[in-house]
Design a protein that fits this description.
177 residues; mainly alpha; flat
Length: 177
């Protein structure tokens, strides 16, 4: 092969697409988070959970395994040259600014939920949180949101109690639930 043939052959090949290795940082973050969840879950005690009831330990292990598997799959895809596709059907006007007032109200609703969950209890606090969040995000009726939130919070309260053996705070409904 002559000296001029090599550059000509290189020029006729398709240009190599540069890999976006910054996505590997996301892989490392997911992997580290999975490792932290695994390590922290190993320190959990079973507490008052009976032998026959699924306790609080399996769920974090599943989450940690999901994080690690996602990190590995993403790393393989990135190293093979995969790239995420641009979202064509995005329903958000990117030229519009952030609605800081709405975001602030959501932050206040969340903070109120954190502060009131012990006093009011899970069911009441989560129902009010759900209804207020729905209303702030454009729901038509605050009362309908609270009613839906009450049903969902009752279901989660009894799921945690009966299936996981974890009692959420009953608050003002202590003795009723």
């Amino acid at each position: 092969m002559s000296a001029t043939a090599a550059p000509r052959a290189a020029a006729t090949r398709a240009p190599r697409r540069r890999r976006d290795l910054s996505q590997l940082g996301v892989c490392v973050l997911l992997l580290a988070l999975g490792a932290v969840v695994f390590a922290d879950t190993a320190t959990l005690s079973q507490g008052l959970v009976d032998e026959g009831v699924v306790g609080p330990r399996p769920v974090p292990y599943v989450v940690a395994a999901g994080l690690v598997l996602t990190a590995v799959a993403l790393a393989v895809d990135v190293l093979r040259g995969g790239r995420g596709q641009v979202e064509d059907g995005e329903d958000v006007d990117l030229s519009a600014g952030t609605d800081w007032a709405r975001l602030g109200v959501l932050a206040l609703v969340f903070a109120a939920n954190v502060l009131l969950v012990e006093r009011l209890g899970w069911v009441v606090s989560a129902a009010v949180f759900f209804g207020a969040t729905a209303k702030v995000l454009g729901g038509r009726s605050l009362l309908r949101g609270i009613a839906v939130g009450a049903v969902l919070s009752l279901l989660t309260f009894y799921f945690f109690w009966t299936v996981l053996g974890i009692q959420l705070p009953p608050g003002v409904l202590d003795g009723v639930l």
